[in-house]
Amino acid sequence: MAEAQALRKAVECGVPDNDKYMHPMLLKNRGNWKYHDRPRPGVLHHVAHSGDQVWSVRAGTQRQMDTHTIRKLCDIAEQFGEGHVRFTIRSNIEYIVADQKKVDPLIAKLEGEGFPVGGTGNSVSMVAHTQGWLHCDIPGTDASGVVKSMMDALYEDFKAEEMPNRVHLSTSCCEINCGGQADLAVIVQHTKPPTINHDLVANVCERPTVVARCPVAAIRPALVNGKPSLEVDEKKCICCGACYPPCPPMQINDPEHSKLAIWVGGKNSNARGKPTFMKLVASGLPNNAPRWPEVNAVVKNILMTYKADARPWERLADWIDRIGWPRFFEKTGLPFTKYLIDDWRGSRATLNSSNHVRF
Amino acid sequence: MAKPMHPTPNLDQLETGPWPSFVTGLKRLAKDKDYVVDVLGHLEHSYQTRKGYWKGGTVGVRGYGGGVIPRFTEIKDASGNPVFKDAAEFHTLRIMPPPGMHYDTATLRQLCDIWDKYGSGLIALHGQSGDIMMQGCTTENVQKAWDEINEMGLDLGGAGPAVRTSMSCVGAARCEQSCYDEAKAHKAVINSFLDDIHRPALPYKFKFKFSGCGNDCMNAIQRSDMAVIGTWRDNIRTDDDLGKKWFAKHGMNELINDVVSRCPTKALQIKDAGAVRKDAHISAVALDGKQCLEIDNKDCVRCMHCINVMTGALSPGKDKGASILVGGKSHLKIGGLLGTLVVPFIKLDTEEDREKLVELAQSIIDFFAENALEHERTGEMIERIGLVNFLEGIGLDVDPHMINTPRTNPYVRTDGWDEEVAKIEAKKKAAA
Q: Nearest Cα to A173, choosing from B58, B50, B18?
């Protein structure tokens, strides 16, 4: 019996139809919505061509959720919502109700249970983030802890819609940047080449793969203490850590020398200008667990400068396009160092080939 | 009751402040589970030493080659035994969520019950590829948990050099800006590549993402190898009642500063009602009795800005579909790449339309599988071989929509020019 059960074959069912999970009002009006507005921060109001209306109440979560928290969110959906929820790409939960009278009690309950209502429109939404020390095999820092510290500091701006336009944040625990492009991103930036444990390389690493992985061809096979290993040309090395995942004996993470960097101006939307990459504007910040105060100070400084200076509908990238980079550094007080001038492939396109200068 | 907690002075500091705390959640689980007591001890050790201590390995479920992320502790004592023995294994199951991440509470509760029984009780909603991440499971329990999750009608997602779990926006389910049925396209494409998801055998990862309009809420252009972005070919639709309502509330200054002057292609003009052009590609919305906002749809690039500002007064046209971009990816190895437009417009209304989308995806993945180097993403491959070689490989014609500008250097051999012109002329003739 037990053996028969143990041999259960996987049902390769793929992605399920979402009909059965959806709020019935969404199902009924699918593809037939007319417009939406936002009656208050954290609430979206959608009107269908049929005249049907739904209100979606959005709340922040910690993303890494224990089952007690998820059940509490379910209790709220059953008692104050209509039994259906959805999640946004930034780990916010949305409760969908077809009865406007349910909106205020739902908000009161969510806030009472510690879930901030907000994250819509011109707010600072929740950070898209990664796994970090909790689960990743190559992290330079934690993810959930950095995010908790950042969102504590930006709590009021999550709940209000007082930014010039929406603000999307991300964090990444290594330079692979799993958190992705964002208006403002916090990413690990290593500053020293990997420390190699030559006793382990031959047994653990497929050496040609590791050599091929290096973006600057700084790694070559070598015999060290009579054993086949790898060596790094430290003058060429850009400390990106690409060799570490395929070869864990090439340890790139360092409690002191793995720093945090801040990037700004990434935009995924096609609205107004085309999508843009974010740009490196600050580095050398210490990996100061458990609250990363130095990182938070720079994040808050940039976002509050943007909030005070940008015009309506300007995303962070749009704002900098208008005021120019010199004034960005002037207004934020961030030092413009030589490391911010690109020398990677395609870098000439990032240089100023005009006499356009703002005085 | 679980065993006593390890001291966690660092993590304790993440319980203060207003944002919901994952540490408080973990501590609640640790009351009943020795497993989570040691997970907290493990994490606190990382906070104290500022290093990570999980290493990968090989753990899976029967019949699949991926979808489980194995983690084994590296915090060991002098004799090589795990210091946090109850958390010596901390694997994750990646589960593909319903498109749009809709749930009824019964489904979420069932996932919780399974995870209390077999796992740590920690679930991330959701990972950066869009998976439900069931975090923290022993090797022994992975198959048991998977069997029950699979019985719910859910399937494992991708990991390693495979087609990955996908994401689609809320789209048609609740958004008036949706230009195709994102969930149906998502399901049609992903469920055509289940073998490539469950048995990783590609040069590297391959991601699809589905956004219903140019706002690209799924960040598809940046984050996916093949991005399906909703758009439309006919005129922006207008609603005079909602236009007047918007104008009464916001006025001329906001109309000029926030709408007209922010149009990237200067397609918007304010006109006296009688002066609005009558051409077929012009649409106009009333502002009051006297003036209108006129849109020259030939100039419009469907960026979504004016529609975002004046929701309902302006909305996407009726002849909807999607653009396809290929080659987005993050930093490693050659630097971040945004996707490149390879199909300006494809209809996605019917099953047959979606089949064509799947065929295109299949030809791109086939070409990728045959031509990419090991650990090379699609965008990097295109960078290496050039867009034209890629297009010829998958059988798409060149199109000026694919570029920002034509070539700015003469370093190309053009002795096939006349032949190419003849081909283009012949195609034009055949189409006429």
A: B50
